[in-house]
Automatic annotation (TrEMBL):
Subunit annotation: Homodimer.
Gene3D superfamilies, sorted: Glutamyl-tRNA reductase, N-terminal domain, NAD(P)-binding Rossmann-like Domain
Job description of the protein: Catalyzes the NADPH-dependent reduction of glutamyl-tRNA(Glu) to glutamate 1-semialdehyde (GSA).
Pfam families noted in UniProt: GlutR_dimer, GlutR_N, Shikimate_DH
Site residues by UniProt (Important for activity): H95
Name assigned to this protein: Glutamyl-tRNA reductase
Gene Ontology biological-process annotations: protoporphyrinogen IX biosynthetic process from glutamate
SUPFAM superfamilies in UniProt: Glutamyl tRNA-reductase catalytic, N-terminal domain, Glutamyl tRNA-reductase dimerization domain, NAD(P)-binding Rossmann-fold domains
Organism listed in the record: Halorussus limi
Gene name per UniProt: hemA
Pathway the protein contributes to: Porphyrin-containing compound metabolism; protoporphyrin-IX biosynthesis; 5-aminolevulinate from L-glutamyl-tRNA(Glu): step 1/2
Keywords: NADP, Oxidoreductase, Porphyrin biosynthesis
Molecular function GO terms recorded: glutamyl-tRNA reductase activity; NADP binding
Length: 461
């Protein structure tokens, strides 16, 4: 695929306007299947998908914006239209940067999202779904995310979803001397376990499907009473627990109402996606269940402190966004310039061969003489193409795609293979140019053509 053609289209279903149920409905258990489904659609050149606890996002590169919108229109059929945000080319590119920088996170500036973007990028690369355009876009987003965290205070005092869950528990109940249980030893469960170990809890249980993973986590937390249990030991741990944080990767509910009915006073924070705790559990006497939405109040204070830093990040994104667009423009111009030089090189080689043959007919040329003639040919090509090279780069910078497209037609590297009837000088004959416009060249297109091209076409008339 060409490095600078196509447009990016995207959709997002995220916490800012979608319910947790809608996000859950949009997400897929197999991320690679999402990518395959996207790239298998005719007309899709590249694809990228990002799934987290709070968002599902999909991006495609197609030849036209309308094609991209059509591809993504039915991608989340179980989600209400009010929850789905469609994004055009520029908005998609800017949004990816905002996500990686933490500006779109439930907890402003949190660090976990940057790792999730990196993981999604690696998955897309392994699937062969990312090409030149999205590769530039996602790597630029990751670069912005890294700069935001090293050059601003956007993540000063930042809390991840896991540590925010513990902060919520500290606000809603007494952690001093409590028995805590973390269900799940993945990334969020690990953060929650470390945060609880730093809190004044007396005993910390970690329950996980893999007992080895749970044991490994309990050995890394700074707590003397950290105990690992497999999921078959979960009932006993629940009976002992005063507070619970659930963060598994299970596709179904791990805790139901019956599991919590005999636990007594228990506060549960469910930060899993899909949710670990059945909604019915919140109706059990003595049991209070908090979901992701409850974390917003916990993070308000931290968010206020980071708003000033966020303004600096916004300015950074503005600059990096322009740099990305300029990069696309330069690559588009470079494609045309490459085609121009390829055409010129073919003509030069043909004419040089004929010239040397004619000179040889008058006596053998020495190697030095041949080098002089070849160097002269190279110099002529370089000098003749230097001005149009600059003009094409200027045209790309000015979004003058009329000039760019005309140059692509005039310097198509395949012209040299079309035969003498279509011009042997590597340049598109007038009839071919007309053909590109359906017969007659519109005035506005003609006005954007170089003067010498207009003269050739006028002479042909």
């Amino acid at each position: 695929m060409s490095a600078a053609t196509g447009v990016v289209s995207g959709i997002r279903i995220s916490h800012d306007r979608a319910s947790l149920d809608d996000v859950e409905a949009a997400c897929h258990a197999d991320e690679s299947a999402v990518l395959r489904r996207l790239v298998d659609v005719p007309g899709v050149q590249e694809a990228f998908a990002l799934q987290t606890c709070n968002r599902f996002e999909a991006y495609v590169v197609t030849g036209a914006a309308a094609t991209g919108r059509a591809v993504l229109a039915d991608f989340a059929p179980d989600v209400g239209d009010h929850s789905v945000v469609e994004m055009g080319h520029g908005e998609s590119l800017r949004h990816l940067m905002r996500v990686a920088a933490g500006l779109e996170s439930l907890v402003l500036g949190e660090d976990q999202i940057l790792g999730q973007v990196r993981d999604a990028y690696e998955s897309a690369r392994e699937a062969g779904a990312v090409g030149p355009m999205l590769d530039d876009a996602v790597t630029k987003a990751i670069h912005v995310g890294e700069r935001a965290r090293t050059e601003t205070a956007i993540n000063d005092g930042a809390v991840s979803v896991g540590s925010a869950a513990v902060k919520l528990l500290d606000e809603r109940t007494v952690l001093d001397g409590a028995t805590a249980l973390v269900v799940g030893a993945g990334e969020m469960g690990t953060i929650a376990a470390h945060a609880l170990a730093d809190a004044p809890v007396e005993t910390l249980y970690v329950a996980n499907r893999s007992l080895d993973s749970a044991t490994e986590l309990t050995e890394t937390v700074a707590h003397d009473e950290a105990l690992a249990v497999a999921l078959d030991g979960l009932p006993s741990a629940l009976d002992a627990a005063d507070v619970v944080v659930t963060a598994t990767g299970s596709e179904g509910h791990v805790l139901g109402a019956d599991d919590l009915r005999e636990t007594g006073e228990t506060v549960v924070v469910d930060i899993a996606q899909p949710r670990d705790v059945s909604p019915a559990a919140d109706a059990v006497d003595g049991v209070t269940v908090y979901g992701m939405a409850a974390l917003e109040s916990v993070t308000d204070e931290t968010e206020r402190r980071r708003r000033t830093a966020a303004e600096s990040v916004e300015a950074m994104i503005d600059r990096e966004f322009e740099h990305l667009l300029e990069s696309y423009k330069r690559k588009r111009a470079d494609e045309v310039i490459s085609a121009m030089y390829e055409s010129a090189e073919r003509v030069k080689e043909q004419e040089l061969s004929e010239a040397l043959s004619k000179l040889d007919a008058h006596g053998d040329l020495s190697d030095d003489q041949r080098d002089v003639v070849a160097s002269m040919a190279d110099a002529l090509v370089s000098q003749l193409l230097a001005p149009p090279t600059k003009s094409l780069r200027d045209a790309a910078a000015d979004d003058d795609w009329g000039t760019i497209n005309t140059a692509l037609q005039l310097f198509d590297p395949d012209f040299g293979e079309r035969g003498d009837s279509e011009g042997s000088n590597g340049r598109a004959p007038p009839e071919f140019v007309r053909e590109q416009f359906g017969g007659e060249i519109p005035d506005e297109a003609a006005e954007q053509m170089p003067e010498d091209v207009r003269e050739i076409i006028a002479d042909d008339d």
